[in-house]
Specification:
Structural class: alpha+beta
Largest sheet: 3 strands, mixed
Shape: globular
Radius of gyration: 17 Å
Low-confidence stretches: none
Distance between the termini: 21 Å
Order of helices and strands: HHEEEEHEHEHHEHH
Mean pLDDT: 88
Helix content: 40-55%
């Protein structure tokens, strides 16, 4: 969806800079924009066209930030049942890990430090997670730092900013608005 948002504004598949500049210029938790062009299996839901909270302008920055934040909020909200609350660093990888604007939002949503793992794709990140899960399932202690340090170079730690955390988590904040909007849209656009 993030690529599709950029494409709506005439940006090419690899043309990230204008969208990243717009994202970094906007405070997190400001624009609520949801777009689900395809039916999804997690959470199970039908497709719907771009939806903006009243007052959100139809412009690159608002749509890009809004779609990034809503997709991250969906992962955050719908994974809480099986992802325990932790305070330790959250490691991220893949294309989005190179975006300071996205990394800032991940740190705020999860209210945890975020460490980018550099020069690796999502498959290697999944492999690291698999190694950790195997060791833990076998009853071994898992030192993710040790596993990661033997394979990849860590980027700098990004700490959640208190104002960003508040924008997402305070009563009436982004996550409450997101949850209500998502529930309404899922009712309005069920699976066919």
């Amino acid at each position: 969806v993030w690529d599709q948002v950029r494409a709506r504004y005439g940006l090419g598949h690899e043309d990230y800079m204008p969208a990243e500049q717009a994202l970094q210029s906007l405070e997190p938790g400001r624009y609520l924009v949801l777009w689900q062009p395809r039916a999804e299996s997690f959470p199970i839901s039908g497709s719907f066209d771009i939806w903006r909270e009243p007052g959100v302008p139809a412009e690159l920055g608002a749509d890009y930030a809004g779609c990034i934040e809503s997709s991250l909020a969906a992962v955050y909200c719908h994974s809480r049942a099986f992802a325990p609350e932790k305070r330790e660093a959250l490691y991220i990888t893949g294309g989005a890990a190179g975006s300071p604007g996205i990394t800032r939002r991940i740190a705020a949503l999860w209210n945890r430090p975020v460490i980018r793992l550099e020069k690796m794709g999502a498959a290697l990140g999944a492999a690291v997670a698999g190694i950790a899960a195997m060791r833990k399932a076998a009853g071994n202690t898992v030192d993710i730092e040790a596993v990661v340090s033997t394979i990849v170079k860590k980027g700098k730690e990004v700490l959640p900013l208190p104002a960003d955390v508040a924008a997402f988590h305070e009563p009436g904040g982004y996550l409450e608005r997101f949850t209500a909007a998502e529930a309404e849209l899922f009712l309005r656009y069920p699976l066919p």
